[in-house]
Amino acid sequence: MTANAGPTVGRPNGPHPSLRRKTSRGTILADRAATVVLWGTGVFVLALLGSILVHFALAAWGVVSPSFVLTDPSDSALGGIMPVLWNSIYMLVLTMLIAVPVGLLGGIYMSEYAGENALTNAIRFAEEAISSVPSIVVGLFGLIIFVDDLHMGFTALGGALALTLFNLPLMTRLSEQALRAVPQDERSASLALGATKWQTIRHVVVPLAIPGLVTGVILTAGRVFGEAAVLLFTSGIGTPPHYNFGNFDLLSQASPWSPFRPATTLSVYIYKLQSEGLGAYVHQIVDGSAAILISMVLIFNLGARFIGRLLTRRLTAA
Amino acid sequence: MPSSANAAVYTQPVLRRVEVTPSRTAEEFAARPADVKIATENVSILYGEKIAVRDVSLTVQERSILALIGPSGSGKSTFLRCFNRMNDLIPGAHVQGAVHLDGENVMDPDVSVVELRRRVGMVFQRPNPFPMSIYENVAYGPRRRGMNDRRKLEELVETSLKRAALWDEVKDDLRRKSGLALSGGQQQRLCIARVLATEPEVILMDEPASALDPVSTLRIEELMRELRQAYTIIIVTHNMQQAARVSDVTAFFTMAEDRAGYLVEVGPTGRIFTRPNERLTEDYISGRFG
After folding, report:
1. How confident is the model over A232-255, as pLDDT tens digits?
2. Do B144 and A186 touch (CB under 8 A)?
3. Considering only residues 98 to 137 of chain A, which have any Cβ-Cβ distance to chain B shorter than 8 Å?
4. Which end of chain A has the least Cβ crowding within 10 Å, N or C?
C-alpha cells in the first residue's frame, strides 16, 4: 500500500470525529485535581520525613561524636550512650532470634497448610486483636507474667518475650502475605517435578518470598528499636551500669551478654531522660540519642535489604 | 513404529467400548497388551458436586503421542491432570475410576504421588521456569530426589538440555543466566529439559505452545516428535493443526448438556482428521463449532 492509495480502513466516506472533541470541564478538573492532590500527598509525606531527619540532624549537631556513641553516661558531663545503644541492639537481636523463626513458621502454616476454616479465622482474629492491644498493656502483661509470676525480675529476656508477643502477629501476618504472593505456578511446577510439599516450600516458596519476608523483618525490627512502653516494666528502666564486655557468663547479672539482666534500651533511656532527667545537658543527650536511634533504624533497613538480596541469591542458586 | 500398528490397537475394544459397549472388567484390563503404557478406566472427575469429566476410558501406547482436542471447557486439561494426580491439589476435586500406569492404578491410596510425578512429568501452558539459573532449573528435580554428586548432576543437566534442543543456545551461561532471562520458546524448552532431568517415562503437556510464537511452536513440535522415540507423550492442544502434525492418536472431547466433558471418540490421528466416526468430531474438526 502506498501513501496516496487513500484510506482503506476506518470509514473512508463517513464523517471523522474530531480528535479534539470536548471533554467535559468537570472531568478535566477532576483529573487535574486528582493529580495535584496525589502529588501533594506524596510530597507532604516525604517533606515530613525529611523535616524529622533534618530536625534531629541539626539538634544532634555537636552532640553526636564517636565518644558520645562509645562511652558510658558517667564518663563525662555530656554523657555517652554506649550501654543503652548496646542494649537496643541486644534486645533487637534477642527478639528477632525468637520472633523471626516463630513468625516465619506461623506464616508458613497459615499460608501453606492451614487453609480456610474456623481455626484459621480464630488465629487471624487473635493476630489482629493482639496487634491492636496498646503496647503499655502488653508491657503490663509482661510485668505480671515474666517479671512477677515467673520471678524473672527485670530482664532482657522478659523484655524480648514481651516484644515477641507484641510483634509476632505482625511478623506472622506479613510472612503469610509474602508467602501467599508467590505464584501458584511455581508450587505446581515444583510438585509436578516430584518434589514433596516441604521441599517445595523450602526450595521454591520461601526463597521467592524473601523480599516480602525482609519487609516483615524490617517493620518488626523498627518497632523493636522504637518500642519503649512494652519495655518499661519488663526489661527495666534505669541508668545502666558500666559493662564489662569481657564477662561472658551468660547467667551473670553483670555480663552485658546475659539475657538475665535488666537492659534499658535507647528508647526507654530517651523516655527516662526526657521525663525525669536532671542535668545541664539532658536535652542535648536526648536529641543525640534520637538522632542515633533514627540512624540505627535506617542502617538496619538498608542492611536487611542487602542481606535479603544475598539470601535470595544463595537460596535460588546454590 | 508403523501407524497401522497404532490403528490396530486403537480401533480395538477400547474404542468400541467408548462408543457402545459396557465397561471392561478388571480382568480385561489386567490382560492389557504389553505395549500399552497408560489405560484409564471409567475416569470421572468432579469438582464438589459438579461433574467436569465423565466416564473416560482410553489407552495410550508406549512411545506414542496422544493428543487431547476439543472445545474449551470439555475437560481435556482436567483429564490430563489425573495422570500425575495434580488434581489432588485442587480443593474439592475428586477423581473416580482408575488410571493404570504399566498396570498399576495410580489412584490407589498407597501410591506415592512423589514417585508418580517423577515418572509422569508435566509441562505447563505458560512456561514457568523457576527464577533461578538455567543450571539450577534443570538440576531441581534430581536434587530433590537426593542427587548431589556434582559430576553426575552436570552430566544430567547437559543431556537433558541437549535432548530439549536448548544446549547450544545456553551452554555458555548455564549458571550465570536466569531461566527467566530466556525467550518464551527457550523457557518452554527449559521446562521440558527440567522434566527430562527427572528421567520420566511419560510427559504430559498442557497446551505447551499456546503462549509461543509460530517459530517457537514448530521447534516444540519437532522436539515432541523426537522425544516420542523414548517417551510416551500426552498433549492437550487447542490447535488442531498441531494435533494433526504431531500426534499418533487423537482423542476428541466435548461437553455434554450438563457441561460435563466426555470423550466422543479416540483413534489414529489420520483417521480422526479424515474419516471420524462421529458427526460431532467432524463438525469440530471442520470448524463448524468449538
Report:
1. 888 888 777 778 787 777 777 778
2. no
3. 115
4. N
Distances (CA, A) of B252 to B18, B144, B236, B240: 12, 36, 10, 11
DSSP three-state, residue A99: helix
Residue pair B114/A198 in contact (Cβ under 8 Å)? The answer is no
B59-82 pLDDT tens trace: 999 999 999 999 998 999 999 999
- E strand or H helix at B251: strand B249-255
- Most B CBs within 10 A among A187, A193, A199, hence the mutation to make, goes to A193
What ipTM was estimated for this complex? 0.84
DSSP string, B161-227: HHHTT-HHHHGGGTTTSBGGGS-HHHHHHHHHHHHHTT--SEEEEESTTTTS-HHHHHHHHHHHHHH
In chain A the domains, ranked by start, together with CATH numbers, are 69-317 (1.10.3720.10)
A208 touches chain B (CB under 8 A): yes
* Domain boundaries defined on chain B: 3-285
Q: What is the pTM of this model?
A: 0.79
**B47 Cβ contact list (under 8 Å, min separation 6):** B90, B92, B93, B94
Rounded CA separation B200/B230 (Å): 10
- The fold of the B3-285 domain, in CATH, is Rossmann fold (3.40.50)
